[in-house]
Structure formats: C-alpha cells, structure tokens
Amino acid sequence: MTLASPQGGARQLSRSGVVLAVCGVILLLVALNVADHYVHGSSLWLGPLAAVVLLVLARAIGLSWSELGLGRDRLGTGLRWAAVLIALVALVYLVGVLIPLTRDAFRDDRYHTGAAAAFFTAFVRIPIGTVLLEEVAFRSVLWGLLSRVLKPRWVLISTSLLFGCWHVLPSLNLAASNDAIRNALGGSSGAAQVVSVLGAVIFTSLGGVVFGELRRRSGSLLPSIGLHWATNALGVLFGLLAWRLSA
C-alpha cells in the first residue's frame, strides 16, 4: 500500500517502508543514548555524525526538505520564531534567578562550575552534542516519516513520548545533582531516583509536545531548535548566575 500525501514532490513510501525506517531510527537512537551515557564526551562527535546520517537516509528514502522542517520557504519565519522564543526564555530565567524563592531551581550541581566550562557547555556541548541530534531525530526525521502514516495529533503524541523516553538514562542521577529536586523529594534515595526519572520523562514528553507544536505551526525546525537550546543552554548560564548570587 502506498500513501498519496508526500510533500514537495517527494517520493512515495510504502507503509511497511515507513515502519521499517522508524524502527531503524529508534534502534539507532537507543544505541546512541547508551553510548552517550557510558562513554563520556561521545555526544560531541556521535551526535552531529548521527544527525547527518539520519538526514542523508531520510532524503535517500524520499522525504523532502519541507517534510523534514528544513524547507527554504520557511527559513525566515523559522528564524523569527526562534529569536522571539530565545528572548522570552532569557527573560523568564532572569526573573527566576533574581527571585530568591525560585533561585534554588537553577542551582544544579552539574553546572556549579567556572564561567569557561559553563560557556563551553552552553554554546558547544548543548547545541552540538544534544540539541542538533534530538531535533533532527524527533522533530525532523521521525516527524517526517510518521507524518506519512499518521494524523498530525498522533505524530505529535508519538514523537513526544519517544522524546520523553530518550531522557531516561540522562535523568538517572537527577535527584542527587539538583538542589530543588533533592529537597522536593526529601533526599536522593532509590525511591527518589525513580520518581525523579518518571518526572523527567513526563516533563520532557510535555516539552516534546511544545517543540512539536512549534514545528507543526511554523512548518520549520528552527523554532523548536531555538526553544530547545534556550531552555537547556540558558539554564546553564543562569544556573551559573544563581550560584554566584547565592555565594
């Protein structure tokens, strides 16, 4: 059975072909997630490499640049959305850090570092090692593939849930490293770790809904990239500021 709704002159794919491609992407992501968890620093070279491989394969099997959220006709709109979203996140974080009641939420032990390390994390490690691969995988390639066989709301739900599951391994030590989470859960016991992982999966799944809606409404990958980078990277920079203000 072939599908009759490819965009921008893209080739048609059989339903079974789409299913196989989606399974292949998921297996690749599982391997990358495990490698990143156990091999320190691997995301800085594996992430960009995997993102390029995924895009090349997506194009090879028939997805158009528009289906991947990278169409030139939406470039300007995507850039404007991204700029506004980054500015909004910066404003919210600034207010949060300046208010003593909410400042603890930014005091993550992982980012209690010097300025050089924080800037490297915000402008190199996060965009290259995290945001690029995640956005290409979930909001570009998987989104484009699933759009061939699912209605838009199910594309949003499925990619968001997969995005949440992607964060299981990275959140294993969350209860031990974040002051606000550790205090809220009453420590970093095994039960607290389980709750923090479940919370991280739910929270990032909801984040995936937001990122996906931006992708759907704008027709571009750039707004979700901008918001994704801002929520992570600016969190590191304002976390550094929170530690300095608490000193």
List the helices and strands and how they pair.
Elements: H1 15-38, H2 43-60, H3 75-98, H4 100-103, H5 115-146, H6 152-165, H7 174-177, H8 179-184, H9 190-218, H10 222-246
Helix pairs in contact: 1-2, 1-5, 2-5, 3-10, 5-6, 5-10, 6-9, 9-10
Mean pLDDT: 88
Please give the largest β-sheet.
none
Estimate what percentage of residues fall within beta strands. Answer: under 5%
pLDDT below 50 for ≥5 consecutive residues: which ranges? none
Q: So what's the overall shape?
A: globular
Task: Give the gist of this structure.
With 247 residues, the protein is an all-alpha fold. 73% of the residues lie in helices and 0% in strands.
Task: Please give a structural write-up.
This protein has 247 residues and is an all-alpha fold. Helices cover 73% and strands 0% of the residues. The chain has ten helices and no strands. It is globular, with a radius of gyration of 19 Å. The N and C termini lie far apart (64 Å).
Can you give keywords for this protein?
247 residues; mainly alpha; 10 helices; single chain; globular
